[in-house]
Amino acid sequence: MRLPGKSIDQYVLYTPSTYNTDLEKRWPVLIFLHGKGERGDDIRLVKQMGIPWRLRDISNFPFVVIAPQCKLNVNTRDVASLNALWPDIIRLYRIDTNRVYLTGLSMGGNGTGCGAWIVRINLQRSRPCVDGVIRRRPAG
After folding, report:
1. CB burial of residue 2 (10 Å; 0-12, 13-18, 19+)
2. Contact 68/8 with Cβ under 8 angstroms?
3. What burial letters (b/e) apply to 41-71, b meaning 16+ CB within 10 Å?
4. What is the pLDDT along the chain (140 residues), one digit of tens a residue?
5. What number of other Cβ atoms are within 10 A of residue 129's Cβ?
6. According to a count of CB atoms within 10 Å of the terminal CB, is the N or C end of the chain lower?
């Protein structure tokens, strides 16, 4: 990353099989935010859950997928780091900035609600898998 934030310095990238043949095409982008268990510096962890995991069985998903990995010491999504990632995404990849989708799992589902980032990238749709809130049933 050109301008890494303090909590993100790597990500999983998926491009469709025809990404390199149609060089004029702008692709929709799906940004996947992982759960708490996938934090750290082993990017393989991000590939074991959610959208990155499912892509192993899909031959031609029609989106560019970006799945950033938080460092281990991060307990929630750092909006500044996500904002630092976005300019690199649109600089490095042929992205249709009118078709940006965000989803997440567990901690990442909670991260989809980071309003400052959603406003920053003019987000079309945000769909958390789990909103990060756990409610306990009353005792008795």
Report:
1. exposed
2. yes
3. eeeebbbebbbbeebeeeeebebbbbbbbbb
4. 444 557 777 899 999 999 999 899 999 998 888 888 888 889 999 899 888 989 988 878 999 999 988 888 776 666 777 777 888 888 999 999 888 888 877 766 666 665 435 444 544 444 444 433 333 344 44
5. 17
6. C
The pLDDT assigned to 14 comes to 94
Concatenated DSSP letters of 107-127? HHHHHTT-HHHHHHTT-SEEE
Rg (CA), the chain: 15
Instruction: Give the residue from 3, 31, 45, 50 showing the smallest Cα distance to 99.
Output: 31
With tokens 């510096």, the residue in question is 41
Q: Give the tokens for residue 40.
A: 């750290």
